[in-house]
Amino acid sequence: MGIKTKSQEKIYRNNWEYIEKFARDESKNSSKVSDYIRDYLTLKNKKIPNKNKVDQEFKLKYPISTTVEYVENNLKPIKKFAKYYHKLVNPIHEQDR
């Protein structure tokens, strides 16, 4: 990001930390953030990114910005879908099995 450290920390706390919490396989106690971002990019781009190029694809879709608003607006839908992803990866939490 091209924004100040304090703003980066706020973005992390308000958005990315939430994504990390919900993009997790609880039964294996493992992070699924990379898989989640890959699936999210597939949904948005209508094209499955190579597993080794998820970071590159993400940076193409969401280039570095100097404004907090731009970053937060891009993270908002990613954060929203993380909740649904959590249910798919951890169906034990779903009431309607």
Q: Tell me about the largest β-sheet.
A: 2 strands, antiparallel
Percentage of β-strand residues: under 5%
Average pLDDT, all residues: 92
Q: What does the overall shape look like?
A: globular
Computed CA radius of gyration, to the nearest angstrom: 14 Å
Strand segment count? 2
Which bin fits the share of residues in helices?
A: 55-70%
Structure report:
- The chain has helices spanning 5-22, 33-45, 54-61, 68-89, and strands at 24-25, 30-31.
- It has four helices and two strands; from the N terminus they run αββααα.
- It is mainly alpha-helical.
- The longest helix is centred in the C-terminal third of the chain and has 22 residues, at 68-89.
- The mean pLDDT is 92.
- The protein is globular.
In a nutshell, what does this entry contain?
The chain is mainly α and 97 residues long. It has helices at residues 5-22, 33-45, 54-61, 68-89; strands at residues 24-25, 30-31.
SSE map:
Blueprint lengths: L4 H18 L1 E2 L4 E2 L1 H13 L8 H8 L6 H22 L8
Antiparallel strand pairs: 1-2
Helix pairs in contact: 1-4, 2-3
Features:
4% strand, globular, 97 residues, mainly alpha, two-stranded antiparallel sheet, 4 helices, single chain
